[in-house]
Give the backbone structure.
Amino acid sequence: MIMAARTDIGKVRTENQDRYRICEIDDNTAVAVVCDGMGGTNGGGLASDIASNAVYDRMCLSYRSGMEPRAVKSMLVSAVTAANTIVYDKSREDDENRGMGTTCVAALIHNGLAAIASVGDSRAYILDDSGIKQITNDHTVVEYLKSHGMIEDGDEKISRMKNVITRAVGVEPTVEVDYFELEAKHGSELLICTDGLTNYCSDELIYSIVHKSPPDQAAAELIERANSGGGKDNITVALIAI
């Protein structure tokens, strides 16, 4: 596997509140975590920093070669749940950080499988010769309205609430974590990113860049394209070529 990750403050924000952690545990195992913080002057960066480190550390410490899928699921969900508790408790220590939280996407690739845990609207995609597919679900007001038939397909792109998230790590004492598991085929790529990328780059553009270029080059070009398209948010990209 070949891995690369980059983050950029964008063209408007004064602080980068995105965080990522990525590593290859062994020749057949990779870990990646991406978080996008929110809340307060410093709260978003603090929340994403705490969560990304907590999830990453627990995954790396808990992983064992040959783990069964059920154990992997428990490990990822437990790691994100623990991070939620840590961020929430920290937010209660200082009024300035009350309500801080973060999105989180955590991925483990091992034994030909990709296991992914997700909270919020940062995304994971799988790309292969057949195209690009979003794995995770956006926990946003717009997606809720769309799923309940309250807005039509296409309206979500122009809704003022498209970036209002309904679920985040650290905002409440407990959090519901989505979990996904899929085949990690040789020749495919796993992309994890914040909405600073997906708000300014279409799926088609992302695919055209990622599936033709080495991960480091693709990550750099994705950030460049997001900035040239507006760059009104922090941008973070983590790529794993399988």
